[in-house]
Every structure is written in C-alpha cells, then in structure tokens.
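Lecture 7 notes. Example A: sequence first, then its structure tokens.
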Amino acid sequence: LSRSAVTAAVLFALGGWFSTRDAVGGLPVYGLIGSLAVIGGGAALTPMLLSLFRRTGRGGLAHWFRIEGLLAHANLSAAVPRLSVSVAALVVSLAMLTAVAIMVGSFRDTVSYWVGQTLQADLFVSTADRAPVGPAATISEEAEQLIVAHPAVAAVDQFRTVDLPYGQDNDLIILGAGDFPVLLAHGGLLFKSPSDGRAAVARAAGAEMVLVSETFSLKYGAGVGDRITLDTPLGPRAFQVAAVYYDYSSDRGLVVMDRATFERHYGAQRPVGLTVYLEETADPEVVREELTAVLGTSRRLFIRTNATLRTEVLRIFDATFAITYALEAIAIFVAIMGVVTTLLALVLERRRELAVLRLVGAGRRQIRRMVVIEAVVLGALSQGLGLVIGVVLSLILIYVINVQSFGWTIQFQLPFGFFLRSTLLIALATALAGLYPARVATRVTAEGAR
C-alpha cells in the first residue's frame, strides 16, 4: 500500500512538472508525457482504492444488499491483489473517456459561443468551387451587384484571402481582408485583447494595422502593439498589431486587414465570400430563396442563412469527434471484459466455497446476486477513480496540449450530465457483464463440497 502511494505521488508530481514545460518544435511533447504520468498515477492508486474498500465497504454493502453484500465484500477483499490489474485497466479507460468528454464538451461549448458571437450576418455567400485561390474560387462582380441590389440587403462585407509564407520556416498563414466599417457597424469578431476591440478596429480601418488570430499570436509571439512583417508584391511591409481575436476556424494563424489597406499593398481582388446583412424586417430564408433564383445555378454559389451555417458548423464538429468516442467505447468494453474475466477466474477458484454455500442453504438467486454485486462494485470503484483522474487529465489536455498544438483557448466546463450518464451506464454494463460469471457460479451444486 505504501509503495503504491509513493508511486502515485511521484507520477502525479512528474505529471505536473512536465505540464509546465514549453512545447518542443511546436509539439506538446512534455504535455503528452505529463498526461501519461497522470494516467500511470491513477493506475498506481488502484490498489489503495481496493484496500480502502476492503476496510470501509463492509457496512454499506451489508446495509444495502444484506448477506449477499457481506459475501461480495469478503470475496473482493480476499482477491485485492488479483483484481488490481484489471480494475486499473478499467480506471485508465474511464479516465481517458472522461478527459476526452470534458475536453470535447468544453471545446463544443466554446465554439458554439464563438459562432454565436462572430456569425452576426443574416446570409453567407461562398463559391461552390473549393479551390483555395484563383478566379474560380472568387465571387464575380456581376453576382455581387445582384446581391447588393436586392431591396432587403442593408450591407455587404467582402472577404478576401491570400496564403502567405511567414516566419523563419515560411509557414503558410492566411491573410484576410474585410470591410472594417461594416465590421464596426455590425460586429463579427470576439476579441481577446485589448478589451475595447471596437476601438482597435476603428484605429485599424485604412491604416497600416492588422488584427491577428489568437493562434497566430501564440505561435509567433505577436501581441497588441507589436509589428509584424508581411510579404507584398512590392516587398516586405511592416504592420502594427491592433488587436488579437479568438478564432477556431484554422490552426494556421490568420491576419486580417482592412480592405483599403489590402488593396494598397496587394491590389484589387475579387472576394472569396460575402457576408450579407439584411433589413430588420426581412426574412433571411425568403431572401435566400430570392437571391438563389436571381443568381441561378451557373454561378455555382452557396447561400446559407445564419441558422443553417451555425448548425452546419456544430454538425461538422460533432462528426469530427465521433470516432474519438467510438474508440473510447471499444477501450472501455475491452477493460470491462478484463474485469469479467478476472471475476470468472475467481468464481472458478471458489467452486468449493460456492458448493459449501449451496450446502448450507444458499439459493441460485443469492449466488447470482452476490457475483453481480461484485461486478457492479468493481465498476463503481473504477468509475469513481476514473472520474477524478479524468478531470485532472482534461486540465492537461485543455490548458497544455491543446494550447501548444493549436493555440486555441477553450473555456473549461464540467459536464455533470455526462458524469451521471456514464456512471449509470458503467453500473449497467458491469452488471450485465457480471451475469456470465454469475451463471457459471450458479451451476455449482452442493455435491461439490464433498
């Protein structure tokens, strides 16, 4: 027991220390090592957890499950060394599931809030051609004029993008240009710094100033007031950072300047997207249908309403992480099977004891209930420790690995609904999984005691 405590303490300390180290070549190497140390610490705590249950669990099981609970406690207490490995495997699987669920849930809530704050336009127009650059990926002047001419359209913001090499390694960043006066009038960005982002946008309108995404700021160390150098057709030019804004659309880093500034340095270019603001009385869906009819299909344009685009963003987000949950479910299934296999081995070893119980009057139902209680107790202990380790692990995922990998700020949220659902699910899963060892145990007859 003392060895387990020391091992767990050392691993947790190492996990905390590694989590404070900087990235190596842009990769969260130490963060990953720290997360492995925390997982190892959770596994090392398993023998302590089982020993604590051996000392304190008897009264509770006896109160809730009577004689079957007492027998289940005695059986598990006698098998602590045998159970430690299989329970530790389940703890690790549940901890990883919990950590990923917290990270994904927090990320989704953050993205949902970001989408709600930044997607202020009523309609979004983009090209059907997914080519990153070139005439086929832009919106023609004719199409833009048809959109602007619609009586329900109050304002239109054009957006242009150019891929630029930046930094010592010539990483490709995205340079964007928009109409800052429209941005000021209708909103559209969520600022990290300064606190008065609107004033920063007003200063940057038409000036040699830019807005940079949080990812760009963290990756290249560019904060408010710093100057960055961008390649232009006329050579390198320096621009002052006016503000840093939150962005979750790309991990490459975005730099945005006013359209007037962009055209001075890069020339006039057709936009790759339009954000359309309608009059207050206009119905976005009706206007979308009217614009689609006016533009026709030959121009290959996508027109989405605000609600449709928000739904699509979250749908893509959920689909992206669906495979993560599938893999975690497989890992938990394998771990539960490990616990069941251990229980089955213990049942086979206790055949003579079970026969004695049958001889003194224990019925098949009582034997079955005893084994299922053992399975549920192991699942509950694993879930409890797994939740605690998972919360700690999620902090490393959100504040270390995510930041060093993508440069995104995620607002930490505890998904209490998930905690409740997963606890009930694990209890049900272990109870069902324990039915087979219980069935084997009920086949033992009193004659086996002779």
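Example B, a different protein, same format:
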Amino acid sequence: NHTGGVEIISPPTAAESDWQRTIHKVFRAISKDFELYTNHLCSSHVHVSRGPDPKAKYGKTDLIDIAKGAFFWEEALRGLLPYARQVNRYALPNHDAFASDEYLRVGVDGWGPLFDKLVDLMGAQGTPDKERKEAFAKGLHAVARDGTPVKYLSTNFLSFLRIDTVEFRRQAGAASATTAIYRVLLALTLNVSALHYPFRNASGWKGYKSTEELILEAMRTLHELPRNCEQPGFEGWLRTCAADYAHESDTYTKFTEKDINKKEKQLRKKEGSEPEQEAEAGSSSAP
C-alpha cells in the first residue's frame, strides 16, 4: 500500500553520541512495515546547533562565519549534487537572496567585498546582540509579498530565530541509513569547517573553490570531530558523487528514479535493514 510521503524527524542528537547506530535502528524499524522509496520531491534537511555543550548558542561571529562558508563553498558544493538539487526552488543558493553582485564578481574583486557585506549586515555596535543576530538572519533571506523572510535557501538561518540552529537544506532524500549518515556528515563538516576556517586570509582570493578542495576540507574537518562521527565510506561517497554528477544538466541526468531506489535498496540489504535480511543480521556491515 502507498501511504504517501513520510518525514522522519530526529530529536536533537549530540555528535559524540552513538547517533549512527541510532539511524540504523530507525531504518530497520521502518523497513519492517514499510517499503522505502525516494524521489525528486524528497530532501534531507540537517539542523546543526552550536555545540558541543547543549546549552551553547551561536554568537555573532559564528553566524557570520557560517554565512561566509555558505557563499565560499557554493560552487564547490554544486559539484557534489545532482542537477535537481543544484538549483532547487526549496533550497536556492544563498547568493540568490543576498550579495548576488558581490558573489558574481568574486573572480574580479575577490571575496573581500562579499565578506565585508556579511559583517556589515550584523549591524552596528551598541545594538543588543539578540537584535543584531535576528536582523542578520532575516537579512540573508528574500522577503515574501507579506514582508516575511522566506526560508528556502541552501543554508537557512531563519531556524536560528526559532530553535537556535542553522539548517542545511540542499541535499536530496535518503532511503537508507548509510545515505542518511553521509548527508548528516556533509552538513556537519560544512558547518564546523566554517566556524574555524581562515576567512580573513581568503578575503583576497579571486575565484571559486573547487569540488576537490571541498572534499579535502570536509575530510580534514571530519577527523577533528568526535570519534562517533568517523565513517570510513564518507570520502568514497563524496568522490562518487563528484564523478556521478559532473556532467548532469537540465537535459541529462545519470540516474533515473528507479536507478536511485535500486541503489538505496542495495544499501539497505547491506545494512541489514530489509526484512528478508534479518536472519543474516550476523553478517551485516552496519554498526
């Protein structure tokens, strides 16, 4: 029976917790009663809070740096995404809503003007921090006809106003625990990298970063995360994505919906998530 779309929402989870095992358990439980399937209407949204202390909040500099990262790695990120997610109405590149001219002139003027515009958006000294951060988050987003900001950007800062997170909306859906884990790791490494990246040194650089540079940065960041974030297949997955999607366009896609779901089902079988695999659970590669 077809039940329509189902959204899986996790509770807040610490990076140092056994979160990968939990994701595997969730997919096993769901697969017992449902057949998982993903299509172009599905996506994976990952919210990242400041951490590692559960009570930690993003500061002004944190938000500026995460915004810098969203612009800085945009072109590189496109190389890891299927064409349908490179330009998607529900997860548009951040430069569509803010600093569009500065982004397009990076090859001529460098990153300095764009970075300066982000710093200026945070507002003047003397205004309460809470108001400055709220204005910053709203200012990064386009405004609807009724005057309210629209959340449909690759990196969504409006969630900060509600639950103190930054949301990464760019990735496609997941129908296996393995793919879900990889999508979490990409969002997490992008976020953590931005908090520590030497953007001051990058201000004078001209041109956009490559997908290969993003992969190397993601792996460098992964090795700085808690041990429970380790995932041996992550780099291979990133490189496979880069190779698979390198030539996709509005007239060519490498994988059909059927192809994608066949691959996801194979991953579920390897994980031991498919019901018929329960008797062979001892041989599962899942944690």
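Note on Example B: The chain has one domain: 19-34+42-273. The radius of gyration is 20 Å.
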